[in-house]
User: Fold this.
Amino acid sequence: MAWIETIREDEWAGELAELYERVADTAAGRVDNIMQIHSLNPRALAAHDALYRSAMAGTATLRKVERELIALTVSKLNDCHY
Assistant:
């Protein structure tokens, strides 16, 4: 659970409810904390999701798993815990 104030997933309504299907991790059955922190600002949530999707589909020369590994490596080098 994020330490930042959020709206619980079961209370998402309106614009948040519409975004839920796009940002929920279907394998885990929940929204990841990094996305959950945007629940107070649905426009930021939509923008974060759009940026992620663009980055993950942005090139035909790398497979998604390779892009994820690059993101993981960059996060590790930056001491990011996500």
